[in-house]
Design goal:
Blueprint (H helix, E strand, L loop, with lengths): L1 H21 L4 E13 L14 E11 L4 E15 L6 H6 L2 E16 L12 E14 L2 E4 L2 E4 L13 E14 L4 E12 L19 H7 L25 E12 L13
């Protein structure tokens, strides 16, 4: 994980240094609206599924390095949730867990425009793009049982206290278009590879009952049927620790370009 983070930071630093040398003054300040959802133990493989959609919002600052590359810093906030009741498999439905969490992410990404893009040149007003970067996020999973809300992290439902702050690797694709020399509209889907398996509070095994208190015991195991060899679930599989949790933002961003006016001198195209 450290090697990936250091590599991404080095790449972003290199392109930032190039941007400083280029003399470009094009910045774009934007506001984003869209949806967020999660993939993990309680939602293994459903992406665009309305049961998991939540509203998401954000702000961003993009620095155009040239007509092919840009750096974007972005703050996004949304909600993630999952529910075993929506699952397809017998194991998942029997596990009978649910969660939701707010998600707050601050990220820096490098964008690559597949076509030459320049808001001041009408022949280059649109381009698909891809992006990759590094981010940090905060989450705090809760669950609802019979109308009562419980914070899950302090309960250590698998006998482990995990951090509610973690690292993400945002990457994805989108398309941007210049509505005018000042207004830039973009839409993208960004997946987040994380290094946490506890966004949903589910990862490994049911702990032994003697290792947790009564409230944690009640919330840890809500199975409809006890399936362990001793007639309980304690010590048996609760989640899949091999695959870490993911989350996604799909958003539309309207940005205002803060650079030179149309008709003023610009740097030569690449």
């Amino acid at each position: 994980m450290k090697r990936i983070i250091l590599t991404l930071i080095a790449v972003l630093s290199l392109f930032f240094a190039q941007a400083q040398k280029s003399g470009q003054t094009d910045f774009e300040l934007g506001a984003t609206g869209g949806i967020s959802w999660y993939n993990g133990d309680l939602n293994p493989d459903r992406f665009f599924h309305q049961d998991y959609f939540h509203q998401a919002y954000g702000i961003s600052l993009r620095r155009n390095i040239n007509q092919r590359f840009a750096l974007r810093s972005q703050f996004m906030m949304g909600t993630l949730s999952g529910d075993d009741a929506f699952g397809d498999g017998v194991f998942q439905r029997n596990r009978n867990l649910n969660f939701s969490t707010p998600i707050y992410e601050l990220s820096a990404t490098l964008e690559f425009n597949f076509f030459v893009f320049d808001a001041l040149l009408r022949e280059h007003w649109i381009s698909p793009y891809s992006f990759i970067g590094v981010g940090g996020f905060y989450f705090n999973p809760i669950t609802e049982i019979e109308g009562n809300i419980y914070e899950l992290q302090p309960l250590a439902t698998e006998g482990k206290l995990y951090s509610r702050v973690n690292v993400s690797v945002p990457f994805g694709m989108g398309v941007k278009m210049a509505l005018s020399d000042r207004l830039i509209l973009s839409a993208d889907w960004g997946l987040r590879k994380t290094f946490s398996d506890y966004i949903d509070d589910v990862s490994t095994l049911y702990p032994m009952a003697a290792d947790i208190d009564d409230l944690s015991e009640d919330i840890s195991d809500r199975s409809l049927v006890q399936a362990g060899p001793d007639g309980t679930n304690w010590g048996t599989q609760r989640g899949n620790s091999v695959n870490k949790d993911w989350f996604s933002f799909v958003g539309i961003t309207l940005a205002v370009r803060l650079g030179p006016k149309k008709g003023s001198c610009k740097h030569l195209r690449i």
